Amino acid sequence: MSEPESDDDDRWVDIMMPHGAMRVPRNSPLGWVYAPDVVAERLTKQLSTGRMNWSLTPLCDLVWMLIPEARPFVAEEAKKELDWAIEHGKFLGVISDGEVVRHLRYDLIVPALGSPDGDDLIRRCLLVLWRMLSVDAEWYANMISLEITLPLLYEGWRSELNRLAPDLMTYMRNRVSEYEEMRKLYGDGSD
């Protein structure tokens, strides 16, 4: 292999490897996989689909990608699943989305509420939850309302949540209204 004639020679590409940066021919296996434009395209695809190459669950994937502050407890939940499967000689199961949502609430959202620097973090957390409604509206709407919105509303954070995530809060209010209407028509099932 010959060295590149100039820095702007498009036959070569600088790539980042675990041991550091290196220059390789663009038209080589390393160039095909690790060229910055190829990596950026893969990352963009993962963000747009909301799924990582190594997928945990749709919720955990989005949490991992959009809320770096949550990565330690997503990793903790993954480790619990790995340890359980090893200990019991079982196949891997899915990580509990409910546990991850509880971590979002208690470890990130609640401490950030009322903090001048907390708005961005809360918005990202609520954005992930809002996006999950398109995956399985019924399941995630129940989880979000039971674990996040209703408790926070009862704790007096209504105006803050409405300010930070108006679309999510409107959706959740409409959902509660629909539930109340169904209860009036059909009862609450406690015959």
The best one-word shape is: elongated
- How widely separated are the two ends? 81 Å
Q: Segments where pLDDT lies below 50 for 5+ residues?
A: none
Order of helices and strands: EEHHHHHHHHH
Total of DSSP H or I helical runs spanning 4+ residues: 9
Mean pLDDT across all residues, rounded?
Answer: 79
Beta-sheet strand percentage? 5-15%
* Beta-strand segment tally: 2
Give me the side-by-side strand order of the main sheet. Answer: 1-2
Described by strand count, sense and barrel closure, the largest sheet is: 2 strands, antiparallel
Q: Helix/strand-derived class?
A: mainly alpha
How big is the Rg? 22 Å
Summarize the amount of helix as a percent range.
Answer: 55-70%
The total tally of domains equals 2
Written account of the structure:
With 191 residues, the protein is mainly alpha-helical. The protein has two domains: 12-47, no CATH class; 54-186, no CATH class. The chain has nine helices and two strands; from the N terminus they run ββααααααααα. The radius of gyration is 22 Å and the shape is elongated. The mean pLDDT is 79.
